[in-house]
Amino acid sequence: MSEENSKPDLNEDSNVLESHMDLIDASAASSRENHLRENGMEPVSLWVFLACGIALIIGGAVIGKGGSISFGALNDYVLNGYIQGDPPGGEVVEMQPKPIIDVFVKNGAKIYQAKCQGCHQSNGLGDGANYPPLGNSEWVTGETAALSQIIMNGLMGPIEVDGRVWNGAMPSQAAGMTAADLAAVMTYIRNSFGNETGDVVSVEMGENAIAKYKERGVAAGPIQVAELESKYKLNLEGEVVDPQVKVNPETLEKIEE
Q1: Beta-ladder partners of 136
Q2: Residue 142, exposed/middle/buried by CB under 10 A (0-12, 13-18, 19+)?
Q3: Is-contact 188 112, C-beta < 8 A?
Q4: What mean pLDDT, rounded, does the chain reach?
Q5: Burial class (CB in 10 A: 0-12, 13-18, 19+), 191
Q6: CA–CA separation, 159 vs 132, rounded Å?
Q7: Torsions phi, psi of 58, nearest 5?
Q8: Could you write out the DSSP letters of every residue in 58-96?
Q9: CA 199, CA 241: separation in Å to the nearest integer?
Q10: Bridging pattern class, strands 164-166 and 98-99
Q11: What is the pLDDT of residues 24-76, one digit of tens each?
Q12: How far is CA 242 from CA 84, 95, 117, 201, 239, in A?
């Protein structure tokens, strides 16, 4: 065994207990330092600085624009990244004018889907058993007063449509029906499903149709063909509208060209 390897780890005057205690104290100190670092002494994350900066920018922009912070404005900034301002030059952009018949047909399609489609189907062919087709129907393309009263009162008993007799029962569609709604849905079915009358049932005509419905009386129940032929084989009174006149789709106001 060499002299170097046989040399004892400690000198004769070394104190074994003190040496071990020094090692224990050093280990404890290192553990305390790590513990403090894990509980709040670590460096602040860059993301925290970025979040605070964005919040300050948003707050400053909102205050600079309106003088105060509102939840609505803050939501616009956070969710959309901006607050919508006025159009350039402060002008309000209006919808492009369209022929009134196109506007009525589009609006009438929505009324039809809500009130008529369940029975007469999306293609207007009916169900083949109880509800007749609306295409090639003289009751649809004929006198407007008769059609309006079928819609408003409902229909009971046999009726001939396109060479076939139907004997179903149609409920009234008057609930919630305004004059504009009635005019639109009548215009729609008179110009759809192969029907091409090319005319418009005006809102004033719709008002007169509702007046006839009220005059007849809600309690009178569904109308029958005999009453339609004796009282309502005529066209509704009211403003006659050029189908191609341009109107604002939102207000239906005529646009002078």
Answers
A1: none
A2: middle
A3: yes
A4: 80
A5: buried
A6: 9
A7: -60, -45
A8: HHHHHHHHHSS--HHHHHIIIIISS---PPGGGPPPPPP
A9: 8
A10: unpaired
A11: 555 555 555 554 455 555 566 667 667 777 777 776 665 555 554 444 544 44
A12: 39, 20, 28, 10, 10
From 215, 212, 252, select the one nearest 232 (Cα to Cα).
212
Q: How many other β-carbons are positioned within 10 Å of the β-carbon of residue 152?
A: 20
Q: What is the C-alpha separation between 187 and 106, in angstroms, rounded?
A: 10
Q: What pTM does this model have? A: 0.64
Q: What distance in Å separates the CA atoms of residue 81 and residue 59, rounded to the nearest whole number?
A: 13
Which two tokens mark 241? Answer: 């509208």
Amino acid in position 248: N
Q: How far apart, in Å, do the first and last CA atoms of the chain sit?
A: 118
Rounded Cα gap, residues 141 and 130, in angstroms: 20
Q: Give the integer Cα–Cα distance in Å for 134 and 140.
A: 7
Spatial distance between the Cα atoms of 130 and 169, rounded to a whole number of angstroms: 7
Quote the distance between the C-alpha of residue 204 and its chain's center.
29
| Rounded distance between C-alpha atoms, residue 167 and residue 158, angstroms | 4
